[in-house]
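Please go through the sequence line and token line underneath and see whether the fold suits the sequence. See right below:
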Amino acid sequence: SQYHKMYRTVKATSGRQIFQPLHTLRAAEKELLPGFHEFEWQPALSNVSTSCNVGIINGTSGWTSSVDDSPTETVTRRFRYDVSLVSALKDLEEDIMEGLIEAGMEDSACTSSFNVMIKECCDGMGDVSEKHGGGPAVPEKVVRFSFTVMSVSVLADGEDREVTVFTEPKPNSELSCKPLCLMFVDESDHETLTAVLRPIVAERNAMKESRLILSIGGLPRFFRFRFRGTGYDEKMVREMEGLEASGSTYICTLCDSSRAEASQNMVLHSITRCHEENLDRYEIWRTNPFSESVDELRDRVKGVSAKPFLETQPTMDALHCDIGNA
């Protein structure tokens, strides 16, 4: 109504229509939100509906609750992952076409093998409590999961070398960062976080095995996605990879060194952790095949005591920067 008032005033006083009428703004907005463009997956994504026009959905949808699950104390909203990726690619349509022209590539020869690199980020946004107001009882912390399209490359028919047609000029800017899911949850609440992110992980895994057919520049083109979880801080990496929290004896998200070892050895650190290994260790922790005591078991798994549920890429963390500086 505020906007409408301004619209009418300006139109009446100046006789010029400089603001768009509200309905045209709404229509323009619809095109920018996920759920507007047609697309198809080949093969179809497992456990994901095939409809394209999916807007904002409840963040816990797609999460099948078992008998002993208590209902999650959270309010969460998200877009479906594949629908958001389509929307992000359509935003880049002009850039991709320009990139093809600049690389001197024949438009019709570049339809089948586009590769898209996606950087994923997930972080707590701190305290968002209502200062006064009686909203639903939810945690007063928010976690946001988002992604950035880092690059788009293409392998033209008959060529053997990939050509990059788009690279994100400001990969760390919040402007290139597309929000996917917002949830009222404390980032240290492992159970709720896994409950909300698990459907996203399932969609992500399904997309790794499939390819997207989407019209870019008037021709249907095939896209494959590579996901890199490099936008997490150490706290979130620990959370996702099932490590103990930062007060643990095992201080590192990249290697198994303990506090004592790290203080003795400032130089020789190699990256020894990977997602698969953390999964194996969790199985050992869960089953305790050698019937060890808790301390022995903990030493064997090096502090992996929860189930890792999202593959992160081990990248340089603040601890190793500190060690390097020291």
Q: What stands out?
A: DSSP finds ten helices and nine strands in the chain. The chain has two domains: 24-231, 240-325. The radius of gyration is 24 Å.
